[in-house]
């Protein structure tokens, strides 16, 4: 049951059904992209993994191999399963090659509106007419990114969580022009990947980032004001509210620079002081303390 006017627009459902998606193009081989490529290949899709140069592509494939090797050590992946995933992967350094014949294109580039618009202009020229176009953005406007394509009805947000091969949630975000067929296929494909999708309207920060950034910024302010140590602030949420990971440890995992960018965007678009980045966060980013990826943030890694 849905309330009138609360769902995505009805549009042409001429998109490939989720169970028929055979070829997936993942644009960006970094933190999120390599994980999306891995889980897509694990369900038998042929995956083209794109990045701007061969070193970046190779690094993404190496991270996938590393994830699979750890899975073998823990008894969660077989050697045959590892080999099957890697056999379904192919790297490329051109967008037209990546999206040629693709049923689903998932962009996983850094959180820059201009960059994402540029990528989808290239995708729109080269991808098949029936392909679903998806962005992994955690906060940027789906409608605005979709507006650079000829058929925004085929455009949707698919926000995965890090690490993708472990985290169950996918936010499926419908824009003002997203068709019911596109939304339903995105939801079904997320389930095919073994994920649990939630459906969210295109609003700044969606559901997860809007809630997570508020909590993260307040936790950083508490460190700044010396209310408690990062460890004890995280422990309060883990033991008192049963969060699997505290907000400061999560900030380290996501990247302080990434969280700063999202906070600045939400502060500007929502005009709310709750999202204003604390001076401590800005200073840590300037000093290169970006969290796990740099070896140091609120914790030593």
Poorly predicted tracts of residues: 1-6, 8-13
Terminus-to-terminus distance: 47 Å
Tell me the β content: 5-15%
Radius of gyration: 19 Å
- What kind of sheet is the major sheet? 8 strands, mixed
Shape: globular
CATH class of the largest domain reads: Alpha Beta
Order of helices and strands: EHEHHEHEHEHEEHEHHHHH
The CATH topology annotation of the largest domain reads as Rossmann fold
Q: Please list the strands of the largest sheet in the order they lie side by side.
A: 3-2-1-4-5-6-7-8
What is the CATH homologous superfamily assignment of the largest domain?
Answer: NAD(P)-binding Rossmann-like Domain
The CATH architecture category of the largest domain equals 3-Layer(aba) Sandwich
Q: Overall pLDDT, averaged?
A: 94
Topology record:
Layout: E1 23-27, H1 33-42, E2 46-50, H2 54-73, H3 79-87, E3 89-92, H4 95-99, E4 104-107, H5 113-126, E5 132-135, H6 142-146, E6 155-160, E7 169-174, H7 180-192, E8 196-201, H8 208-224, H9 230-240, H10 247-254, H11 256-270, H12 279-286
Parallel strand pairs: 1-2, 1-4, 2-3, 4-5, 5-6, 7-8
Antiparallel strand pairs: 6-7
Helix pairs in contact: 1-2, 1-3, 2-3, 8-10, 8-11
């Amino acid at each position: 049951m849905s309330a009138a006017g609360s769902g995505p627009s009805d549009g042409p459902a001429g998109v490939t059904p989720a169970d028929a998606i055979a070829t997936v193009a993942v644009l960006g081989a970094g933190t999120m992209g390599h994980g999306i490529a891995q889980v897509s290949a694990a369900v038998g899709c042929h995956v083209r993994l794109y990045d701007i140069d061969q070193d970046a592509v190779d690094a993404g494939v190496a991270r996938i191999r590393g994830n699979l090797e750890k899975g073998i050590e823990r008894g969660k992946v077989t050697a045959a399963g590892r080999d099957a995933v890697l056999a379904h992967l192919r790297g490329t350094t051109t967008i037209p090659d990546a999206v040629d014949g693709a049923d689903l294109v998932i962009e996983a580039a850094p959180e820059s509106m201009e960059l994402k618009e540029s990528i989808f202009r290239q995708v729109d020229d080269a991808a098949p007419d029936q392909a679903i176009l998806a962005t992994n953005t955690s906060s940027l406007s789906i409608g605005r990114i979709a507006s650079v394509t000829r058929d925004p009805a085929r455009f949707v947000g698919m926000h995965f969580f890090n690490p993708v091969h472990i985290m169950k949630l996918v936010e499926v975000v419908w824009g003002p022009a997203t068709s019911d067929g596109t939304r339903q296929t995105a939801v079904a494909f997320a389930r095919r990947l073994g994920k649990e999708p939630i459906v969210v309207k295109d609003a700044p920060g969606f559901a997860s980032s809007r809630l997570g950034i508020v909590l993260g910024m307040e936790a950083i302010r508490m460190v700044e004001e010396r209310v408690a140590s990062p460890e004890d602030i995280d422990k309060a949420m883990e033991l008192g509210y049963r969060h699997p990971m505290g907000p400061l440890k999560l900030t380290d995992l996501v990247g302080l620079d990434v969280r700063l960018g999202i906070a600045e965007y939400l502060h500007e678009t929502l005009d709310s002081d709750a999202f204003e980045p604390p001076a401590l966060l800005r200073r840590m980013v300037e000093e290169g303390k970006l969290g796990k990826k740099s070896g140091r943030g609120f914790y030593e890694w």
